[in-house]
Structure formats: C-alpha cells, structure tokens
Amino acid sequence: xxxxxTAAYVITGIEERPVELTGPAGPTTYTAIxxxxxxxxxxxxxxxxxxxxxxxxxxxxxxxxxLPRTVEPQQPDLRGVLVARPPMAAEWxxxxxxxxxxxxxxxxxxxxxxxxxxxxxxxxxxxLAVPGNTLTQRxxxxxxxxxxxxxxxxxxxxxxxxxxxxxxxxxxDSRVVSAPSAQTGQWSEIWSTYYCNARQEVELIFAPTDTTxxxxxxxxxxxxxP
Length: 226
Prior knowledge:
Structural class: alpha+beta
Strand content: 35-45%
Oligomer: single chain
Radius of gyration: 18 Å
Order of helices and strands: EHHHEEEEEEHEEEE
Strand order of the largest sheet: 1-2-5-6-7
Distance between the termini: 43 Å
Shape: globular
Number of helices: 4
Largest sheet: 5 strands, mixed
C-alpha cells in the first residue's frame, strides 16, 4: 500500500467516485494509481509535446464520465492506442473516463484516462485515451488515430518535408472544429500528431452511416522543430 501511495504526480480534485470504481481503498488510492500511471512514456511524451517540455505543471481533475456497462474499456498497445479488450463486462462493475487538466507555462492541456476495476481486484486499472476534447467513442478512437497516422506516413513517403526516424507517430491532442450536423451527424476534429521532430495538424471527418462511422482526413499543416 505504501508503494501505491507514492505518487508520480500530484493530482487534485479527484474526490467522490463510486466505490465500485475506486475499490475499497477509496479515492486516495484510486488517485495515486492514476498518478503513477501518468509516469509512463506514453503519457510523458504527450505532456512534453503539448506543453513544450514545461516542467512547472499542476494537475487538476475536471471531472469524470461513467461508461455504460455495455461498453467494455480497452487496453492500450505500445503506442497507447486503445485496441484490445479486457475481461467481459460481467467481470467489471463500472468504468469511467477521468479528465485531468495539466497547466503550466501559460498553457493548459487535457489528459483522458479510462479507469475500471474487475470485481475481484481491489485496485483500479488505468489506460490512456486520446487526449484533448474528441467526441469519438471508445471503439472509434483507434480507427481515427490510425487514419491520422497513415496520413502522416503517406505524406512523408511523398516527400512532404516530414523527416523519417525510428518512432511511431502519436496523437497527442484533439479538438472539435465542427459540431455534429443535425441532418447527417457528420462532424470534424483536428488531431495533433507528432513524428520525429515534426508536428502535424490533421483534420479528421467523421461521417456516421447506418452501421458504422466512416473516417477520412487530410493534413492541414506540419511544423518541423529543431
């Protein structure tokens, strides 16, 4: 327990949460586990990219969203893309998206984490969701990120001044630029990606159909930083 409570970052504002989510140890241990998870490379590289390596950061909860029992949380792969499924829904009582705002050097940035607890586990499990303010649901985020990644790599192969190196393109931020249409449900977002020392702004178009949501996009800009 002492090890669990050794926080990597100090997060304020996570207070009452359902005991089915936090486990019997309550919000203090729940917060400490999220805090330790934030020290993994997939989170720290996104923080450094979005906030230009600012070291004077504060972290504050801006709330949480409970996920329906019919929606199973997803585990991250090596990039933090949420693709693989955990145990069946019957084995976990509740899951949520935690929204944590990082602030420092005159900027703010939103991290999103999926948290859930299996019925027989006293401690919560944490996974990284796409940061920012995307409207995408859990089963759509990995397809959207893959679309953005493929666009960046296609642009690089076409000689668009995007450097090549031994890393995986990552999405480090998202924002909505047009709300869902009342007629078609279509909406658009800008996802910020990072590859080598280049950053890209990728516009993604989400078009709902009767059976799925089609994702298309284009690169709006890229910036190479020294």
